[in-house]
Design a protein that fits this description.
Helices cover about 35% and strands about 15% of the residues. The chain is built from ten helices and 15 strands. Strand 5, helix 6 and strand 6 form a beta-alpha-beta unit. It is globular.
Length: about 400
């Protein structure tokens, strides 16, 4: 049996607050602080000659763990900075024609919208698929949008405002049958949802490190299926893009034969050390066990929210577990509730007028109980907390 108390003890944030915005950004654990300190101590003594971490070794270990998690080959992964960067690499590298279509997601996170907008200047049509109330309902709405001119579908793995997983495998099957490129923003999915790029027929995917993978801000990953590498033009080329990149002269014209060509120059190696420590910690626990624990804590919180009269959006898709709880209550202003919870050191997020919670493995059921008590107290004390001109002011 997993010792979750040991995991909880690794995270100093638990002494300060209940952090329930892990699909936004996760705090660092002691194992990460130790790894970063160890590297920085060595770097302060020997610079790039330090033996505390080797550039190529760290890169390959990161890509190996991620490859196993995603069903990808290491050569199909590039270490970048964030999802937006990855989506821009993909968007500007593709060859599309006027009249062709791209399908995006309604109320999508900007990282998977802004990078595609430039295509409208070239006559490419951007369509938007409605979120839907369930994965099945979303798919029903998506299919009629697909035409003979649809060239690419780019969607999130999980909707950031509702927590709903999208039916990637079914969409991937449609894309394969119709010869449509399939791109995924995996930021909210990788590490929380099962992701298999082969099974889901995903051609491209970009995601950040600092959400469910508990990695550093400012680091991301780009996946490019090896069968699609030839379809992408390298808009940006740097020292790290070419073969034999450690030999600076003579200049090269041949790009690396894999996704590494998109890690174009000197990387933020400190973040790589951070990310590796996080991935190895999760890998030692087991990603399946991590996922199960996230779902367990989320459902535990959901039960308490239902008892308090909250509508929990994931109840609309009960057959699709998610680690993101999005809820609302009639007559209750979610923005004020989020403020009151923050005063009680319970950190949540506000999305589309609803409140969003996202537990991770370093939290406990006891903390979910404490969160429920804080919500109940906020509702009781502040729902009609004061009056102005005889009218009640709701939180």
């Amino acid at each position: 049996m997993m010792d979750w108390k040991y995991v909880q003890a690794q995270y100093p944030v638990n002494k300060e607050m209940i952090w329930l915005n892990n699909c936004g950004m996760t705090p660092a654990g002691e194992h990460i602080v130790s790894a970063v300190n160890r590297f920085m101590t060595g770097y302060s003594q020997k610079g790039i000659l330090t033996e505390t971490a080797d550039y190529m070794d760290v890169k390959q270990r990161i890509k190996s763990i991620l490859g196993q998690l995603l069903g990808a080959e290491s050569e199909e992964l590039a270490l970048i900075h964030n999802t937006s960067e990855g989506m821009n690499i993909l968007s500007h590298g593709l060859h599309l024609k006027a009249g062709e279509e791209i399908i995006l997601l309604e109320n999508e996170y900007p990282s998977n919208v802004y990078p595609w907008r430039h295509w409208e200047e070239n006559g490419v049509i951007l369509k938007t698929a409605a979120m839907g109330s369930s994965p099945e309902n979303f798919l029903e709405g998506l299919i009629p949008l697909i035409t003979d001119q649809t060239r690419l579908i780019s969607l999130s793995a999980v909707h950031w405002c509702t927590g709903m997983p999208l039916p990637l495998e079914q969409i991937g099957k449609i894309c394969r049958e119709k010869n449509i490129l399939f791109s995924v923003d995996g930021a909210q999915g990788v590490g929380m949802q099962p992701m298999d790029v082969r099974k889901m027929n995903i051609d491209f995917m970009a995601f950040s490190a600092w959400k469910w993978l508990m990695g550093p801000p400012g680091m991301g990953v780009l996946y490019i299926s090896k069968k699609r590498l030839k379809d992408l033009k390298s808009v940006f080329v740097g020292t790290g893009s070419v073969i034999n990149d450690r030999e600076y002269l003579p200049y090269k014209t041949q790009l690396k034969p894999d996704a590494d060509r998109f890690t174009i120059s000197t990387a933020d190696f400190l973040n790589w050390v951070y990310f590796l420590a996080s991935l190895e910690f999760l890998c030692d626990i087991g990603f399946d066990r991590v996922r199960t624990r996230i779902f367990e804590l989320t459902e535990y919180l959901n039960q308490r929210l239902r008892m308090m009269g909250f509508e929990v959006l994931s109840d609309q898709f009960p057959d699709h577990p998610t680690g993101i709880t999005v809820c609302q209550k009639a007559g209750l202003a979610s923005d004020r509730l989020a403020e009151k919870l923050k005063e009680q050191k319970v950190i949540a997020a506000l999305r589309l007028g609803r409140i969003r919670f996202s537990p991770h493995i370093y939290l406990s059921k006891q903390q979910m109980d404490e969160t429920a008590r804080a919500i109940s107290e906020a509702c009781l004390n502040h729902l009609y907390s004061r009056t102005v001109n005889g009218s009640d002011l709701k939180i």
